[in-house]
Design brief:
With 282 residues, the protein is α/β, with parallel strands linked by helices. The protein is 48% helix and 14% strand. A 6-stranded mixed sheet has the order 3-2-1-4-5-6, with helices on both faces. The protein is elongated, with a radius of gyration of 21 Å.
C-alpha cells in the first residue's frame, strides 16, 4: 500500500495482474456473440446504449464492462443469461489484485487499526478526494486506470456496513486534515466525511498534532488487522512499495508502535473537537 491506502509500485494497468486475462477473455466472448448476431460495433453499441468506441475498447480488453453493460448485452444478443453470468468474474477483476487481497483481509478482520501520516486513510476517503489523489500520481495514470482505482477504493468502504461491525481505529496526522488535496471544497467535504465516520459506534478517530515532540510513528504509515481466530497481519508502507507483515514478532512491533501512537495523539473526544475546528477554518 502507498500512503493513501492501497497501492504498490508503478502505475498499474489492466495487465498488472490476473485481472487482465479475465477482461480480455470476456471481451473476446462479447465480440463472438456480437458477430454471431450479425451486428457491427456501432449497431450493437446503439442497441445497448453505449458508443462504438466503448464497444471496441471492451472487446479489445482495454475497458472493463460495467454490470449494466453485460445485462444489456445479454438481452440484445439473446444470450439467455450466459453473458450476464460473467458479472461475478468481471466484478472481481475490476479491481487490482492488491486491492482485492486487501479488501478480503478487511472483510474478515474483527479489528483494524491504521495510522496515516501523509493523506487521509483510504477507507476514510470521499470519492472526490480519492480521485484527486490518483489524478496527481506521477507517472500519470490513464483516465481508465484512475476510474478503476477510485471504484476499488470506494468498494472497500463496505467495511463500515458490516454486521457484526468490526472495531476500527484511525490516527491521522494533523497535516492530512489541512493539505487541500483536490482544492478547498474537496477538502471540506472530506473533513465532513471524517466527522460523519467518527460518529459510528465502532469507530475511534484520533488526530496526532504536529507540535508533538515525541512521536512513535516517525517510521511511516502502518496498519494492523486482527481476526476472529486470534491471528493478525500487519502492513508496512513506503515509497513505491508495500509489504504484508505476517511474522508475529514484527506484528508485535507494529502493535507496540500503534499503541504508543494512539497514546500520544489527542483523545477521540479532543480529536473530534479538533477536526470540527479545522472544518471551520477550511
Amino acid at each position: 500500500m502507498d500512503s493513501d491506502g492501497t497501492e504498490g509500485a508503478g502505475a498499474p494497468g489492466l495487465d498488472d495482474d490476473d485481472s487482465g486475462a479475465v477482461i480480455k477473455t470476456v471481451g473476446r466472448q462479447l465480440k463472438l456473440w456480437r458477430e454471431a448476431a450479425g451486428l457491427r460495433q456501432g449497431e450493437f453499441g446503439a442497441a445497448i446504449g453505449y458508443g462504438e468506441e466503448m464497444v471496441s475498447a471492451v472487446e479489445r480488453g482495454r475497458r472493463i464492462p460495467k454490470p449494466e453493460y453485460l445485462e444489456q448485452a445479454d438481452r440484445v444478443l439473446s444470450a439467455g443469461g450466459r453473458i450476464e453470468a460473467m458479472k461475478k468474474d468481471v466484478e472481481e477483476a475490476r479491481y487490482p489484485k492488491k486491492v482485492r487481497d486487501l479488501a478480503k483481509l478487511e472483510a474478515e478482520a474483527v479489528e483494524l487499526g491504521a495510522y496515516g501520516n501523509h493523506n487521509i486513510h483510504g477507507l476514510l476517503q470521499t470519492e472526490e478526494y480519492a480521485r484527486a489523489l490518483f489524478d496527481m500520481r506521477r507517472p500519470a495514470y490513464s483516465r481508465d486506470e484512475v476510474d478503476r482505482q477510485v471504484e476499488a477504493r470506494m468498494a472497500r468502504r463496505a467495511i463500515f456496513d458490516r454486521s457484526p461491525a468490526p472495531a476500527l481505529t484511525f490516527v491521522q496526522e494533523e497535516v492530512t486534515l489541512r493539505r487541500p488535496v483536490g482544492g478547498r471544497i474537496v477538502l471540506r467535504r472530506q473533513i465532513e466525511r471524517l466527522l460523519e465516520v467518527a460518529q459510528f459506534r465502532n469507530v475511534e478517530m484520533q488526530v496526532m498534532p504536529t507540535d508533538r515532540d515525541d512521536h512513535a510513528g516517525m517510521g511511516g504509515q502502518l496498519q494492523v488487522l486482527k481476526f476472529g481466530d486470534g491471528s493478525a497481519v500487519g502492513y508496512s508502507e513506503a515509497q513505491l512499495m508495500s509489504r504484508l507483515v505476517p511474522d508475529p514478532k514484527l506484528i508485535q512491533v507494529l502493535e507496540l508502535r500503534y499503541g504508543i501512537i494512539r497514546a500520544q495523539a489527542l483523545s477521540p473526544r479532543e480529536s473530534l473537537a479538533f477536526i470540527e475546528k479545522v472544518l471551520g477554518e477550511t
